[in-house]
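Data deposition worksheet. Section B asks for the primary sequence of the deposited chain exactly as it was used as input, without tags or linkers unless they were present during the calculation. Section C holds the resulting structure in token form. Section D is free text for depositor observations; keep each observation to a single sentence. Incomplete worksheets are returned to the depositor.
Section A, Depositor: J.P.
Section B:
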Amino acid sequence: MNPRSLDTLNRKITACKLCPRLVRWRTKVAREKTLRYRDQEYWGKPIPGFGDPHARLLLVGLAPAAHGGNRTGRMFTGDRSGDWLYRALYNAGFARHPRSIDRNDGQELTDCFITATCRCAPPLNKPLHREIRNCRPFLHAELKILDRVEVIVGLGKLGFDTAYQAFVELGRASLPKKPRFGHGVEVQLNESVTLLGSFHPSQQNTFTGRLTEPMFNAVFRRVNTLLNRRNT
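Section C:
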């Protein structure tokens, strides 16, 4: 695996303007901001993947939050969902710190890489089907570059389905039919890659108790078991 290939891909991602609706929305949010971040400069561009280029664990989320990743320029950084995710990754030994505040905070991931179904913040957190399709080649490219991946966690149904569909499109899925999403669902995509399902750590799930910290931590304990890896 050549990390320079990942750098080249990330530059292509951040320069992408394929989806006019998303370009308008992300730049509008970055320009108008929200009151609590009015003194900050927003990223306002597509978000590249983040993490260890030699990772065996790949996380596939939905899309950047308008005032989270769209502001900070890093996946799951600067919002409540990210607080849950990085705390779980830290507890499982994948993250250097339990929080990810901005892209210059010194956060590092070990054996883990985070990506998303859609790289731009969408209105109402709902990307359109054509926008998802436009973004899919970036995930294809990441899967080709991150050639040590053994476990994928789909964060939410869209992340889970996106990971599966990408493997189908790349000719790497050996499943007879599309797996059904559920929290804790575990399927073997092929001889070497396992796909796990997890409820997304969005406020819609965490505030209602649909996803609890013990449930979320259990997903990453299972990841460590599959990777034959002890927490550090």
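Section D:
The longest helix spans residues 129-145.
The chain has a mean pLDDT of 96.
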